[in-house]
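Reply to dn_fold:

You asked what the input looked like. This is it:
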Amino acid sequence: MNKRTVALIATFLNGLIAILKITVGIIFGSMAVLADGIDSSTDILTSLTMLVSIHIASKPPDKEHPYGHERAETIGAKIISFIIFYAGVSLLIESTKRLVLHEYHTIDSLLPLIVMALSIAIKTFLFLLEYYVGKKEHSKAMLSEAMNMRNDILMSTMVFIGIWLNKIGFAILDPILGILLSLFIIKTAFEIFRDSVYELMEGLPPEELDIYEHIQEAVSQCKQVKEVSRIRVRKMGKWYIVDIDLKMNGNLTLYEINAIKEKIQGFIREKDPHIREINIVVYPSDTKSVDVGCNADTMNIGEEK
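and this is what came back:
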């Protein structure tokens, strides 16, 4: 199953459960159910955003985008974080208002419990599906959505428990749960935003920094390398792009250096198959004066054409 199919399934199921929860929340006046329903409606927007970003990211490189379009997924993840943050703040304001004004009451019907149980089941299915495919495809947008879905499971479970306690006389829990859920939503938004910023700023989140150790280990397998001057890694969607500066014996020929570079690239890709591009620059480990035979006259520098 590919990312596009998963996004379509998520959009449909999120839409279905959002309609049910919002309807039940309005009919029975439950702030917690309504809040969870609004959160699910934002999931529709995030699923659509993910679908569009995945479509753009799948386009091959072109003249304007020689490195490809994979960063579209990162931009999609950032948009998702804004949507989630807005929903969280809105719910926090409304829940606080209801708590302060004592706008809560006991819910007698079993229908809200049934709807929330259905929501938990659907969200669990979507989380497992999106997490599996997101990890398999190294999709930042899909993993962000799976992370959001995981939070939805916890929130729906809290709402389910809250409704049950409401039925036995603890009506005040409804707006309190609404406040707790909204804070959880805001926290999720910040986490998704943080990860997307790392990639757009060409950095790596702390949990991915071990790739530097893997590259160092791979390079150390080549005895011709005298020194690793610098290693830089940046993310492009699910791919890593690696730049390495090395020092080798200055007496090596270009043919030998090229063969060594290819060998090093092979070692690195064995460590991590998601490295798409490896750029290696080689400098001589010993310094000496060399007449390269290049000057303004021989290179025709400055001549008008």
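The first strand starts at residue 225 and ends at 236.
Hope that clears it up.
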